[in-house]
Design goal:
282 residues; Rossmann fold; 10 helices; binds NADP nicotinamide-adenine-dinucleotide phosphate
Length: 282
C-alpha cells in the first residue's frame, strides 16, 4: 500500500443516536476526520430491541478497512453527508462507481469504534414512576448497550486481528447523574451508573482482544434532552447556575472527547470515565 493510499485509510465507527444532539455532532466531527461513520436513525437501529440491532448488523455495509481501501484505489469514490429525513440524519455514503474490481461486497467486515450514545430520559417522582417507564429507560440506555456490544464484538475483534498494533474502542455515553444521582430521574441515573460499571467490567474482559472500553459523563449539554427538562428561563438559570462555569456544554465538546478516546494516543485509556460537566460535580 502506498503512502498516498494509506492517507485515505478510514476506520469504521458506529454511533447510535446520531440523528440529534451529541450523536449528530460526533458523527459530523468524526466523518470529517479519518473515519467512516455509520450513524443510523432509531428507525434503522432501535437499540432497545435485540432484533433491530441484529437486523441492522446483518444488513450494514461495514467493510474491512484495508480491503475497502484497495477497492477504492481503483474506483472513483465520493463520500457525502446526506439528509435522509426531516431530522437531517447524518450518514456517510460511499459511492463506488465504474469499478468491477472493487470487490467491496466480499470484504471481511470490521469495526474500529462503537459509540453507545442513544439514550432516553423520563422524569417523575418515584411514587408516580410506573414500571413501564422504568423498563423503557433501562431498555434503551442499559439493555441497548448490551445488545450493541454483543452485535459489534466480533467486528471489533476482527479489526484488532487485522491490525494487531492497534486497539479498537467502545465508548459509552453515561452521565454525571451516574454518580451525583438526579432528582426525579431514578431510572436514568441508575442506567447511567450501570453503564460505568459495565464499561469497567468489559474493559477487564476485552483487554485480551485489544479493545478499550470507557465512559464519558456529561453534565448539562445543550440538546433536546436537556432543554426538555428545563421548561422556562428560571429552570435554565437554576440548572446552569449550579455549574462552576455557569454555562451549557456544547455537543461539540462531547464530540471532541469522543474523538480523543478514539485517537491513537488514547489507546492506553481503558476502564475509565471522563467527566465533562462545566464544574457541576464538584
Ligand atoms: N444532553 C445532556 O445534558 C446529557 C447529559 C448527560 C448525558 N447525556 C447522554 O448523552 C446521550 C445523547 O443525548 P442527547 O442529549 O444528544 O439526546 P437527544 O438530543 O435527546 O438525542 C437522543 C438520541 O438518541 C436516539 N434514540 C432514542 N431512543 C433510541 C433507541 N431506542 N434506539 C436508537 N436510538 C435512540 C434519538 O433518536 P430519535 O431522533 O429517533 O429520537 C436521538 O438521536 C444520551 O445517552 C444521554 O443520556 C446527555
Amino acid at each position: 500500500m502506498s503512502d498516498s493510499e494509506k492517507t485515505k485509510f478510514k476506520k469504521n465507527i458506529l454511533i447510535s443516536g446520531g440523528s440529534r444532539g451529541i450523536g449528530k455532532s460526533a458523527a459530523y466531527l468524526l466523518s470529517r476526520s479519518d473515519y467512516k461513520v455509520l450513524a443510523p436513525s432509531s428507525q434503522e437501529l432501535d437499540q432497545s430491541s435485540e432484533k433491530s440491532v441484529q437486523d441492522y448488523f446483518s444488513n450494514a455495509e461495514i467493510e474491512d478497512c484495508e480491503q475497502y481501501l484497495e477497492g477504492i484505489a481503483h474506483s472513483r469514490t465520493s463520500s457525502r453527508l446526506r439528509r435522509t429525513n426531516d431530522r437531517s440524519v447524518l450518514r456517510v455514503h460511499e459511492d463506488h462507481e465504474d469499478d468491477e474490481n472493487a470487490e467491496i461486497e466480499d470484504c471481511e467486515q470490521s469495526l474500529y469504534g462503537l459509540i453507545v450514545n442513544a439514550g432516553v430520559y423520563h422524569s417523575s417522582c418515584f411514587e408516580e414512576y410506573s414500571f413501564n417507564d422504568w423498563q423503557r429507560v433501562l431498555d434503551v440506555n442499559l439493555n441497548g448497550a448490551f445488545h450493541l456490544v454483543k452485535a459489534a464484538l466480533p467486528l471489533l475483534k476482527t479489526y484488532t486481528e487485522l491490525n494487531p498494533k492497534d486497539y479498537s474502542r467502545i465508548i459509552f455515553i453515561s452521565s454525571v447523574s451516574a454518580y451525583t444521582g438526579e432528582l426525579y430521574a431514578p431510572a436514568y441515573s441508575a442506567s447511567k451508573a450501570a453503564l460505568i460499571a459495565l464499561a469497567k467490567s468489559l474493559a477487564l474482559e476485552f483487554a485480551k482482544y485489544k479493545i478499550t472500553v470507557n465512559s464519558i459523563c456529561p453534565g448539562w449539554v445543550k440538546t433536546d434532552m436537556a432543554l426538555n427538562q428545563m421548561p422556562n428561563e428560571d429552570s435554565v438559570k437554576n440548572s446552569l447556575g449550579a455549574t462552576l462555569q455557569n454555562r451549557w456544554i456544547e455537543p461539540e465538546e462531547i464530540a471532541h472527547a469522543i474523538s480523543y478516546l478514539l485517537s491513537e494516543p488514547a489507546k492506553g485509556i481503558t476502564g475509565e470515565q471522563i467527566n465533562i460537566t462545566a464544574g457541576l460535580d464538584i
